[in-house]
Amino acid sequence: MEYVTAVPHPRSEAAGPARSARRSLGIALLSGALGAAVALLSTRQSWSEGTATVAGGDFPLTAKGSDVTGVPAALAIVGLAALVAVFAVRRSGRFLVSGLLALSGAGTVVAAVLGAGDSSALDEKAAAASGNTAATADALSHTAWPYVAAAGGALILLAGLLALRYGRLWPAMSGRYERDGTPRPRKAKPVDPDRPEDLWKALDRGEDPTGPDPAGT
């Protein structure tokens, strides 16, 4: 007679967190990298347009995202660096870097939304084009690119939140590439008794040239 037990197998219990860690890691990497790329690309596009009166005519004006504010691009770069740094640190360091990643995304969203209705960059261009410091842009209009940048910031924020939640389960950089400062042992060089210079070099290294050959020959 066979008995059915309700106790879960240890392997099935361990598979759940491991699967969640792999899934969250993939989503975080994709969303973080994509969000940074979208935010950077958006700041190079036209955020607002208008005209200035120059010599009795309308002079077209365009302000890119980088003209309006440099905060989204800067925070996108910080977020991308933090996304890479998450795998270079452990424990509390990983938690702090994950928090920086999330804050970079949130800051990108806020800066992009605030810049969506900003007309100061166009006013400066209008004043420069007309030669009148009091001139402002006319026929002002805004594009959707600031909100695209905000969407990129939201993806960076998602990566940061995933790192805060599941980062402790993610792998770290291999320690085999880290030097522990331990001096490497020197290999004894074979000494030719027929060459006096080899004998003197062995004595300088603190070796016994008359002793047995370390290679066993």
TrEMBL record:
**Pfam families in the record:** Trp_oprn_chp
- Organism, by scientific name, is Streptomyces lutosisoli
The alphabetized UniProt keywords are: Membrane, Transmembrane, Transmembrane helix
Q: Which InterPro entries match?
A: Trp_biosyn_TM_oprn/chp, Trp_synth-assoc_CHP
| Transmembrane annotation, as ranges | 25-43, 68-88, 95-116, 144-164
Mind telling me what this protein is named? Answer: TIGR02234 family membrane protein
Q: Where is this region: Disordered?
A: 177-217
NCBIfam families named in the record: trp_oprn_chp (TIGR02234)
User: Compositional bias of type Basic and acidic residues: which residue ranges?
Assistant: 177-208
